[in-house]
Each structure stands twice: as C-alpha cells, then as structure tokens.
TrEMBL record:
Protease found in the keyword field: no
Pfam families: adh_short
InterPro entries: NAD(P)-bd_dom_sf (IPR036291), SDR_fam (IPR002347)
Transmembrane segments: none
Protein name listed in UniProt: Uncharacterized protein
GO molecular function: oxidoreductase activity
Gene name as annotated: PLEST004950
Keyword field: Oxidoreductase
Family: Belongs to the short-chain dehydrogenases/reductases (SDR) family.
Amino acid sequence: MSGTSWSQSGAGVTRSSVRPGVLSRLVGAVWSVEQAVEGLLVDHWTPNRIPDLSGKLALVTGGNSGIGLEVCRKLVENCATVLLVSRDKQRGEEAAAQIRASLMSQGGSGPGSGTISERIGRIVVLQADLLSLRDVQRLIGEVKRHTREAGGLHMLLCNAALFQPGAHAVSSEGLEQTLAVDYYSHVELTLGLLEELTRGSERGGGARVVLQASQAEAFGSLDFNNLKASRPPVGDKFTDSGMSAYGSAKLWMLMFAEELQRRLRAGGGAAARIDVFGVHPGLVDSPLMDKADTQRHLNAALLVMQNMFLGMPTWRGSLPALYALTEPSLAGKGFQYIGPNWFNLHMLGVRSPGSRLWRTGGPELRSRLFEETASLLQQLGHPPAHLPKPAAALAT
C-alpha cells in the first residue's frame, strides 16, 4: 500500500505521494490481516470468474477514471464491446488508450483466440455532460446507433457522480447539480435505453442495469415539494451542494432501481429478464474524492483523509459492480443491493439500505418517487422514452 499524506492549501485537502511512514505501514498491516480474515469468512468471487462476453455491449458512465475505468478494463478484457462515457472527450480517449495498452502488454488475457487484439473487446468513447438533460438525450441517440449493430444493450452501469462539489448550483434545467448528475441524468438514460436493454435481453438471455450507490444513502432525505432543490429556502438541507444532496441522490437512485425492477417483472416478456441492481463500493481511495470542495465541506475533508489512509484501491471497489454486471448466477435475482459492510468486509454481501426512509416508506414511497421523477422530467421537456407501468396497474 503506497503512503499518502494530506495538505491544507488553497484547494483544500488533497492527496500527494510521499515516502511510506509508520502510519501507512501500520494501515498496510491491518489491511493484510483484514484480507486474511475475510478469506476465512467468505467464498471469494474474483473477476477471473467473469464469463466470455463476446457479442455483449456495455455502457459505462464515468468510465474514464476510478471505479468506472476498472470496470471498463475488465469488461474489455473479457471481450465485451464497451461504450465508455466521459464528460471530457480527450480524457475518455486517454482512458481507452490506457486500457488497450495495459491489456496488450498482458498479452490479451481474455477468453478469445487469435491475435492479442482479437482476444480483447473494443472500446468506443462517447462524450456527454450529464449535468445537461439535453446532452443525455443526445447520448441516448448515439448509444442507439451502436445497439443496432450489437442487437441491443446488454449491460448498463450508471456510475458517474458529483461528490460535494461546492456551493449550491443548478443545471441549465434548474436542477441542483449533484441531483442532476447523480440521479436525474441516470434515470433519463436508463428509461431512454429500456427498449435497447429489452432487445439485448431477448437476444442475449437477459440484461443488467447496475446503479452505483453509496453508503451515504443513509443520510439522504426526500421532500416531494423540493425535488429539484433549485431554490433552497432558509434552513433547507440543500443550501450547499454537499452531503445532503449526495446522500439524497444515492437514496433516490436505490428507490428508483427497486421500483424499476418491480415494474419490469410485472410487465413480463423480455423486459422481465432485465435484472436491476444497486451496488456500493465501500470505502475507496477514488479520484471522485479529489473533486470534492474540502474547503467548504468539512465532512468532505474528513472523508478524503479517511479514504487516503483506510480506503481500498479502486480495483477492489469495482468488484460489486463487476459482479452485478456479469455473474451468471444472479440472473433473475434483481433487485438486490450489493456491497461490503462498514468494515469493508464481505464485498459482495446483499445489504439493506441504511436510510430510515427506505425502511419506513415501503413500495408506495418508491413508486411515488418514480412517478414524480418521470413527471418532473416531462415538465422539463425530457419525457422518458419508455415508462413501465406500476405493478398494481398491470395486475388489474
């Protein structure tokens, strides 16, 4: 484990590489013991168990760094075609080149045969700013062009996120920035690609939708009178684009995921074979933290420091998402919420969200959020292309 230190500067708390010190060596020893203990407690799933993904098409938002990059690497290694979505086209191309170079240097370790380049999948970089619903609509159109070749979309990972970016700010559509990127853009993207996922399910024996959540969902709240969080009144929790917005976005994402699964199952047909999962990576030393405004948000500064010393590497944080996207034995088992416990153990355990709202609201609350989210998107001029009916309506 490499040593890290933190410094307080004009940019707030940042990570920097230093010579390993006593603390980092101690943390490294604790990490080794933790892994040994986990090895005795759980039956490990590793990416070596990912099947041959030849002919499969995957879409990963936020694929240019961190967990998204690791997921893209493993999918390509196992012969999938990956649409890597990045806000910055150049950074996306650099990430794709990095993946190709690393796999070529390994000799193309995937299941394919032939030359090295034939033993790995293909990466296509798509640019999209998820802060803009209009740009998400454009992205959906681009993805559809690619799905025509592949016979549908087989895997969707909604991974891109903002984490405590700073002062309260809104998107061009008037949505608080964290909610816009972390929640609304992914709802629009998922619903906009349901037909492509259904075709992928029909021709490929199922499809997967995986939404990257966070243990911060425990701090989320829900006010149906303030779903946009665009004009925070005095005393409102959304006065900053901080932990309240981030936790709420992740909670809403899980609520959306479970309700979507209920509706897809109730509708029958190939769409019923789309499995929807929520995952969380645990405590990870991820580039996501580098973008947090640690001057404005004290808890962000504390989390950055905590992750530097105790966080897992990003490859390990990618395991829940990879497992949910690719493990054959999970077919038909959505909705599940998968991730480690608070001690970063049992990486692939099935969890129950920690939010009180999740426990007390029940299916009715999740269905209402689903409907009101779709209604808000319609009001903003971006009606969902495909809106599954409520399970109760289909039963009558």
